[in-house]
Amino acid sequence: MEGLNHLINGFINSLTLVNLVACFIGALIGTIVGVLPGLGPTATMALMLPFTMKYGPATGLIMMTGVWYGAMYGGSTTSILVNIPGEAASVVTCIDGYQMAKKGRAGAALALVAIGSFVAGTLGIMGLQFFAPLLGNAALSFGPPEYLAFMILAFVLLSNLSGDAPLKGALMIAFGLFISAVGINPMDSYPRFTFGWDELMMGIDFLPIAMGFFGISEILNIALEKYKVPEVKKIRLRDLYPSKEEGQRSIYPTIRGSILGFFVGLLPGPCTVISTFASYSLEKRVSKHPEEFGQGAVEGVVAPEAANNSAVMGSMVPLLTLGIPFAAPSAVMLAGLRMHNVEPGPMLFTTNPDIFWTFIAAMYIGNLMLLILNLPLVGLFGKIAVIRPQILMPVISLICLVGIYSVRNSIFDVWVMIAAGVMGYFLRKWKFPIAPFIIGVVLGPTTENSVRQTLMMFKGDIFLVFGRPIAVILLAVAMAFIGYKLVAPLFGKKIELKVEEDDTL
Amino acid sequence: MGREGIQTFLLMTATFCLWIAVMPFLGYVIMTLLATYAFCKIMRLEGWWKPLALSAGTALFIYLLFDYWLYIDLPRGILG
Q1: Phi, psi for A162 (deg, rounded to 5)
Q2: ipTM value of the model?
Q3: Could you give the CA distance from residue A326 to residue A223 in angstroms, rounded to a whole number?
Q4: How far apart (Å, rounded) are the C-alpha atoms in residues A23 and A234?
Q5: I need a labelling partner for A171 at 20 to 30 A (CA). Which of A116, A145, A390, B45 fits?
Q6: Which residues in B lie closer than 8 A to residue A54 (C-beta atoms)?
Q7: pTM
Q8: In B, which residues are within 8 Å of A223 by CB distance?
């Protein structure tokens, strides 16, 4: 019952004008960003951080999550109407979505996706509401060794699940950790890797790096691509009604997709992308008419879109309960919360319960808002999708430049952003995953702290770790995973969960 | 990338760098106008009035957003 009281309080707190407006703006911008190919949710959230500073941490969190799942909604629109995925998590939707559009069922597909996403989002929030405090309580007993073990496990999984080669992922995490080590050593206040530069004494800030890697490098990428004029299917409002058969066929896929997506969201890696692929193949397997997939099966559209929405919620669980982001957008969110001096983790539920519950309540409201926003405005969003990049990219470039300068009034940060952007462009070209790098940067200080504290606790005796069962189990899982990856090729088995990380995530 | 691609890439990067290097002296409004125009031209937006209108709009938007709404003290340069 205590949870219910908290939730009611949360609703009361979130129903302030500021929070509602923040939720609406976040959802609207998120949808637009999801519709536009190029700028993904991560870059947008990084750009919006300075704006959230004007208000409290809960408002900031609400706005950023709004962007993230707004983008999940919006991505489906272009996939179905134009056959261009607005962001990586909607690639799968193109397969059957565009086929439905060709048959003139685009309106129905969009409506079902919007309803499905709403259901999935709501189920996801329920999951978050239920699991997060539970996990938070369990994590209260975590000491530095457990945290370290958990982080090692997360890094192992992350490098395996993102990109085309585990080694590349691992390298990117290591590089991220290295970047976070630049600056003053927290233990003895001795400058590290500064090369005598004053600007580097404070360390390299996370935001310019995130903006560079996800914003500038994407701008460069699009500027260099040849632009093809997309063809948009027209949608009338009365086309939005799905037929009875289509409606019935999408009930179970929606629920299956929601549940699957939530649990995939708990995994490290590009969870929203993985969840769509996983749920598409699940639907194909359980379907009575697998031959319809690829020809415009409604299940193949609804289930992945439901999955990516609840995956967003799932990935909030490790972020809020352990303070460990598993995906690039949640890494940005962690940075945002830190700017407000809120450190998510098991203590969040005892020190700042109102933030958590306001957030939960706002998510319920935001989800409803998205449903109302998306259905009537589908035609408008379809038009936005065909704005030419020659008009869009210059504007976005300038907003990035001024935006990153405004965070700390620092020209150095702008240089860092451009350097990161150029580097990010080439890293993508050579198929290095970007998300592990960002997560490495943001987790660097936490990792370093837990390493140091663990070393001090154990006083050089590694066998003391066996006195801590949770840490041992986590490390054993990590080792087993590495072992499995090494042995599996010998037996000719394939690990299915691997997905090419798309750049726009 | 091809010859044209390399050219676009270098021009884009150069524009970014120029904006950062000159912005503290000329101010963000003028540099935003110039840079938006440059980006449009690099990405081959044809004509002259479209890029011009776009850069004016961008500069106004950025002024309203950062200066007017968020009260952020951006370098104004020679516009004082």
Answers
A1: -115, 145
A2: 0.93
A3: 30
A4: 29
A5: A145
A6: 70
A7: 0.83
A8: 8-9, 12, 42-43
Q: Helix (H, G, I), strand (E, B), or coil: what is residue A191?
A: strand
Compute the nearest-CA separation of A31 from chain B (Å).
Answer: 20
Tens of pLDDT along B28-79?
888 889 999 998 888 888 888 888 999 999 989 888 888 887 777 778 777 6
DSSP H/E element including B61: helix B49-62
What pLDDT, in 10s, does the model give residues A183-196? Answer: 888 777 788 888 88
Cβ pair A444, A179 in contact under 8 A: yes
- What is the distance between the terminal CA atoms of chain A, rounded to a whole angstrom? 38
The one-letter code for the residue type at A364 is Y
**CA A269 to mean position of chain CA atoms:** 9
A356 backbone dihedrals φ, ψ, rounded to 5° = -60, -50
Contact A59, A267 (CB under 8 A): no
Task: Return d(Cα A181, Cα A178) in angstroms, integer.
Answer: 5
Instruction: Looking at the complex, report in whole angstroms how far the Cα of residue B71 sits from the nearest Cα belonging to chain A.
Output: 10
* Secondary structure (DSSP) of A361-405: HHHHHHHHHHHHHHHHHHHHHHHHTTS-HHHHHHHHHHHHHHHHH
Buried b (16+ CB within 10 A) or exposed e, A352-365: beebbbbbbbbbbb
Q: How far apart are CA B51 and CA B40, in angstroms?
A: 6
CA distance A322 to A325: 8
Distance CA A132, CA A319 (A): 9
Predicted confidence (pLDDT) at residue B4 exceeds the cutoff of 80: yes
CA distance linking residue A274 with residue A500, whole number of Å = 9
Helix, strand, coil abundance in chain B, percent, nearest 5? 80, 0, 20
User: Can you read off the two tokens belonging to residue A5?
Assistant: 């009281």
Which residue type sits at A295? Q
Task: Find the CB nearest B16 among A405, A411, A418.
Answer: A418
Using the 8-state DSSP alphabet, how is residue A227 labeled? P
CA torsion sign for A260, A277, A297, A293 is: negative
Q: By CA distance, what is B56's nearest residue in A?
A: A395
Structure token pair of residue A323: 């303070």
What is the interface size between A and B, counted as CB pairs within 8 Å? 90
DSSP conformation class of A292: G
Give A400's strand partners. none
Q: B-side interface with A, Cβ within 8 Å? A: 1, 5, 8-9, 12-13, 16-17, 19-20, 23-24, 28, 32, 35-36, 39-40, 42-45, 50-51, 54-55, 57-58, 61-62, 66, 70, 72-74
